[in-house]
Amino acid sequence: MAIRLTPTVKWIMIACLAGFLVQQTVDQFMGGNLISWLGLVPSQFMIHQRFWQLFTYPFLHADVTHLLMNMIMLLFFGSELESVWGRSFFLKFYFLCAVTSGVVYLLLQAFVWGGEGLGTPMVGASGAIFGLLMAYGLIFGERTMLLMMLIPMKAKYITWIFAGVQLMTVVFSGRNGLSGAAHLTGMITGFVFLWVRAALAVMKKKNPGKGFGGLNLPKFGKKKSASQAKGHLRLVIDNDSAKKEGYPTVKVEADDDDSDPKTWH
To answer: Is there a domain that residue 156 lies in?
Structure first.
């Protein structure tokens, strides 16, 4: 499939490259410690109230390989999703997954691993990117992709393989599994957010203009109609924001039927 670079993805990639170059130059050649300001450091976040770190840590990376792998995944999955969602929804989803991954990292370091990890920074955009991977698997699940550039496989299966690998990393790698925990958190966040959004859209469609927020809660003992009984949950792309911002629009439906000292990620 052809890959095109969409505007928001392009600027995120530029920001990540700039953040990597500035941080590496300042810290390695100028004797600075920029990572303690912009990376996600539990002690700095909680004691010194550097709350902006939740939003800046995804723009830093540990090394060139780390940066390159994340940018390739962002280009491949992010551009496709932005072209369908539009800029506004894409950014909301991206930073929701990134922030949630950061919060889980802070909680694990503070309450599971204890004080010895409070000074260990986390950098990298993988929490957000693995959230994009999950969204891609849900929306474009029937597309055939090459796993490891060799094995043809549907996108939905590749997504669950990645999820399984991250789960095993968390379970069997101990403290070294924190990167896997961040990846898995991004995937879970993406899944839950899209599923809840789709469920609310279905409820609103079935009960337009009724109840709180257009939702009519079912009454106990009331028999469902035939159409309600046969209804399936559909994940539907809303192209309104994409139209406003000049992106091509696509309608996709997924029917749910029976058939190092741095912690980088």
So the answer is: yes
